[in-house]
Amino acid sequence: MAVHIRLSRNGAKKHPFYRIIVTDHRSPRGGRFLETIGTYDPLGDAKITVKSDRLTYWRSKGALPSATVERLLKRQAKAAAAAAAAAEPT
Question: Which residue range forms the structural domain that includes residue 54?
Answer without folding.
Answer: 3-87
